[in-house]
């Protein structure tokens, strides 16, 4: 080509320009001895990213197109995981070999023994937990788990836990008196708050038990002294200076109140 001249390059049968479907020619221009469109090639067809339910709008991480010979890396939505039908999805001259689906993620519950753990890892006995589900850890009697396990995209979080002895009241009191600040971890704060609630509940129950079982008290018997007034009639007076009502004089009070002292007789 001379300077300023142009032409269209035609790809061989069975090939296309840069893998684009139905594009078999490409224009080029000669400018000062340099071709204006040097970056093109004739080759096999590329594959458009397949439409897959529960996947992103562009289902392949490589982009909207995957070149001949390339593989599609699935881009499933959060909570879903890819399941291949033939182990992979590969592009061969515009055609996909193999496919995949985006299935709801789940976590397989490990079956190995846990120190001081129960018969099954999860209290429910489940062998698989769906994405977002929680496995309540089962421990032997007298033990409690440091954390429950949440399924996130096929894996459990947190990654570690342990079955530890259930704290007794003495241990809780020691921890409260020796700890100057609350532990920073949210699960530890939750545990300490529950310890305090348990202690308060025990104290309330103990106070109620004492109140219900307290025996009825009787009125303190008064000391009586006899004296004579001006008309020489006999009276009884208690130690607080009140006349004793006749109902009290036989030693078996029939009323809890003493009658006030009688007014002195007129001369």
From TrEMBL:
Coiled coil: none annotated. Residues 253-267 have a biased composition (Low complexity). Residues 232-252 have a biased composition (Basic and acidic residues). Residues 47-102 form the Sushi domain. Keywords: Disulfide bond. Residues 229-267 are annotated as: Disordered. This is Sushi domain-containing protein.
């Amino acid at each position: 080509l001379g300077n300023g001249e142009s032409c269209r390059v035609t790809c061989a049968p069975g090939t296309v320009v840069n893998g684009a479907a139905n594009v078999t020619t490409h224009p080029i221009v000669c400018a000062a001895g340099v071709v204006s469109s040097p970056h093109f090639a004739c080759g096999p067809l590329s594959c458009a990213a397949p439409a897959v339910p529960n996947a992103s709008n562009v289902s392949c991480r490589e982009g909207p197109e995957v070149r001949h010979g390339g593989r599609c890396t699935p881009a499933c939505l959060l909570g879903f995981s890819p399941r291949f039908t033939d182990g992979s999805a590969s592009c061969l001259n515009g055609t996909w070999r193999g496919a995949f689906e985006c299935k709801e993620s789940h976590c397989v519950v490990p079956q190995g023994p846990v120190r001081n753990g129960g018969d099954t890892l999860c209290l429910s006995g489940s062998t698989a937990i769906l994405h977002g589900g929680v496995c309540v850890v089962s421990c032997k009697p007298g033990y409690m788990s440091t954390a429950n396990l949440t399924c996130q995209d096929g894996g459990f979080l947190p990654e570690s836990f342990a079955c530890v002895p259930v704290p007794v009241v003495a241990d809780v009191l020691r921890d409260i008196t020796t700890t100057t600040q609350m532990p920073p971890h949210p699960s530890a704060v939750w545990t300490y708050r529950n310890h305090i609630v348990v202690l308060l509940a025990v104290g309330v129950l103990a106070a109620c038990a004492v109140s219900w079982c307290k025996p009825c008290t009787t009125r303190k018997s008064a000391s009586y002294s006899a004296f004579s007034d001006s008309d020489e009639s006999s009276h009884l007076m208690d130690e607080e200076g009140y006349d004793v009502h006749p109902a009290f004089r036989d030693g078996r009070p029939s009323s809890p109140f003493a009658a006030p002292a009688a007014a002195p007789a007129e001369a």
